[in-house]
Description:
The chain has helices at 10-22, 33-38, 56-66, 81-89, 102-116, 152-162, 171-179, 188-200, and strands at residues 2-6, 26-30, 44-47, 50-51, 54-55, 71-76, 94-97, 126-129, 132-135, 140-143, 146-148, 169-170, 206-209, 213-216. By secondary structure, it is an alpha/beta fold. The chain has 2 domains: 2-116, Rossmann fold, CATH 3.40.50; 126-216, Winged helix-like DNA-binding domain superfamily/Winged helix DNA-binding domain (Arc Repressor Mutant, subunit A), CATH 1.10.10. The strands form 4 sheets. A 5-stranded parallel beta sheet has the order 2-1-3-6-7, with helices on both faces. Strand 9 (132-135) and strand 10 form a beta hairpin.
Amino acid sequence: MRILLVEDDRRVSSVMVSMLQRRGYEVEHAATATAALEAAPCDLVLLDMNLPDGDGLDVCRALRARNDQVGIIAVTARAEERDRVTGLRVGADDYVVKPFSMAELEARIEALLRRSVRHPPPAREVAEIGPLRIDHAARTVHLDEEPVTLTRKEFDVLASLARQPGVALSRERILLDVWQTTWSGKHTLEVHVASLRAKLGRPDLVETVRGVGYRLRA
């Protein structure tokens, strides 16, 4: 997941960038409205409303007009109800008032990202992908017609990958699908993938995509 942080306060931006990177996010920082509008596409924007060269409301409006799918969280000292209402009306998905805790911000980011993946591509009730046969309703897996016994989370990881076979899914996307959070215990996903590969007996079926996540070989 790629986050654009739009914040002109160096001290605040430094803390936020560090926190987000520790959580595994890729972060681009923009200190001005101009830089925010020139930034590369992202998955989510944390947007300060008080910028040195423009109003954050205008930036929010422009970002929303450009991409109606990107998540936008207004992060600002403007605490009046009318400010909140205006921010939401011009396109923000959520509104966080300074000062805030990093725990609160992280929870709001995760909630917004969960909403963005609430309707993943529908899984066929029974999917046949190469030698794999996955029955999503019965929660059973067969490999070359032989049953494979998986734990609940191992099945959920496989099901997440099976929704889009051949497509590389980010670590964060899989965590959201399976654990409903992007911040699970250290190496939680890696441990489950390793166990899944061992039980399948075909490590090549679940491929590691360096710098991204995992892919189920189509």
